[in-house]
Structures are given as C-alpha cells and as structure tokens.
Amino acid sequence: MALIVQKFGGSSVADAERVRNVARIVTDTYKAGNDVVVVVSAQGDTTDDLIEKAQEINPRAPKRELDQLLAAGEQISISLLAMAIEALGYPVISLLGWQAGFNTNSVYGAARIKSIKPNRLQAELARHNIVVVAGFQGINRYDDLTTLGRGGSDTSAVAIAATLHADKCQIFTDVEGVYTADPRKVDGARKLKEITYDEMLELATLGAQVLNNRSVEMAKKYSVEIEVLSSLNPVPGTIVKEVAKLEKMLIRGVTKDTDVALISILNVQDTPGVAFKVFSKLSGKHINVDIILQSFGRSGTKDIVFSVSKENGPLAIELLKGLPALAGAKVLCDTDVAKVSIVGAGMETHPGTASKMFEALYERDINIKMISTSEIKISVIIDAKDADRAVSAVHAAFAPKD
Length: 402
Ligand code: ASP
Ligand code: MG
What we know:
18 strands, 6-stranded antiparallel beta sheet, binds aspartic acid
C-alpha cells in the first residue's frame, strides 16, 4: 500500500462534471489499495473573480482581508469534491489549510510555509478516509488566514508529500505534461518523459506555466518526485526528478517571454562605481534585473544595457534619469522585445549548443540584441515581432532526428 498525494488545479474542478471526474480518479486510486491525500485549487476562475470583487469594493484592500476572501475559493472546491466522493460511496473528509496543519509566516498574499503539523492528516488517514485539503492557504501565528501566492496549490501538494513522505506526488492539470515548447504554437512540440528539477525551474521561471516554481524548489529540496499529468486524458505524464535520462535530446525546451523591457544607458562616464550606483538604485525599489550587458569603455564613455519586466520599465527610467552619476548619459527604454530561451542539462557537456541556436536565428534573418547564458540555459533578446518564428526555428534545429 502506498501513500499518494494528488493535486488538481482550477480547470480540473471547474464545474460539477469535472468535480465528478476528479472524484472518480481519486476513488480509483483509493480502491487500488492506496492512502490518498487530495489537494485542490479553487474552481476555474474563482480566484480572479474574487480579486475583481475586492477591487470593486476597495482597490487598495488590506492584504489580510484579501487573503480572508481568497481562501474561500478553495473552501468551496474541497467541500464539493468531498461531496462527490461521498456520493460514490467512499469515506472522505475535507480540511481547510489550517485544519491540515499548514503554518505559514505572515506575508499575506505571498506567505511561506513554515511547517505542517501532520497529526490531523495522519489521524484521518488512519481512519481510512480520503483526505481532501484546500491548497494555497495556511494560518499564521496570530491565527489569521494566509495565502501562498498565485498558483500556490502546487506548493501545498509538494509540502504535504514531503511531510508525509508520500510515495507519489501527482499534479493533475489540463495539459498532458511538460512539453519541449508550447504545443498550441509550435509544430512538433513533444511531451517529455522526464525532466530534472533544475531544468523545470528554468522552464517555470521562463514562463512555461505548468508548475509553480516555488513548488519545484521545494520538490528539489525535499527530493519529492513529481508527476505532471492530465485529469482529462489518462496517459502517462512527465516526471520531474533529480536525474533525468536525456532521451537523445540536447535541450529540454524552448520558451518565449514577452514581458521584457530593455533599458539602455548610453555614453556614461567610464569611471568606477557607475554600475553599482545604477543597480543599487534599482534594487532599492525591488526592481529585478535580468540580463546585463556593458560595453568596453572607449574615449572615456561606455554603454550599459539591461532588461527588466515591462511593468518595471517606466519606474526604472524615472529612477535613472534623476541619478547624478548618469549626468550627460542618454537613458532609453524599448518594450518591443522578447526573450527566447533554450533549457537543457545536456548543454553543459555539449559544445556548440549556443552556435546551433544562433545559426537557426541567422537562417531566419533574426537579429540578436543580447545574449545571456547559464550552465543549463541560453537566452537571447530579440525583436518581439520575431519571437514566435524564433521559437519554431530554434525548436526545429534541436528536434531529435529520428
Ligand atoms: N486558486 C489559487 C490561484 O488561482 C491557487 C492555485 O490555483 O494554485 O492562484
Ligand atoms: Mg487557480
């Protein structure tokens, strides 16, 4: 007998028919002789709708009250799922985050799980109940409700799997797994059998919206193997784990991120301290900088170019224009750009990966504005209008020829 944690996202429980479908998956797992803990998100767009409701009443609603409101979404879905499971004739109990022992810090809207007190979960499992837990929520030291941030139910599921040393952690969603590129947009995009935590983290951070990246960090830390699979189509999904076979593939995925603004500072004095002054000013306002490029100094001046999220572009410009160290320099912002990246642990040991990517772009006459690399990732900044073509070209260049 195994202990299995199954998580279902909002689209998997969107209406009564889908809730009944989830109840069948869960009870089939239980019937096969397993202990089952189920984590669910709010139905469909419930969380967005609740946020909208709050904004109508008070656009600057206190964060504590927002969490109090948002936690209601998952309260609805756990009780409905428990009713559906009971209707199929199985023993079940639903638990809110606090009843399931989720203790968090007090950062409303982005709380971190501090610990899970497993007593209640264990007691309900010992009574042979299927346990349905509200994802995305917990309680802080003041006994107030907190939420973990958007998409937080994945993290709830992984945290339970880690705490209870579950044998399996399955994350059910509306796609069949993790793909080499967005299958709706890229011809030949393939479902991966396996992917490592680090690759998944890069992909999640680069905008592949399958798993929340905090959940992947936690899975890596506690060595929880995750299976991502579809709640609508019962086929094997993608396994996320420490070491994954390369399946004859050099790269694991190609992604596109259009939430990029390029800030250029031209003709700055070529003196010590400029970079420090620029980037400390930005970090003081919590502006996250992604790729940074600085030119060699020539005739006493140099250029610094870097990327931030689109939202942060205007604020970055405003901060830099008032900076004495940049007197005489020109500060520009370009938002018509996109970042295209390839991710794969295989590139660490394969020379020529970068040139293959650049060749694919060159063949399509796509100009690269910036390049950045890590051990398992290469990103380029290009014109936004070229982004989809670039993803397809790069994906085709790396597709295994079989
Ligand atoms: N219901 C929450 C959200 O929509 C949590 C989740 O879906 O994981 O962000
Ligand atoms: Mg949701």
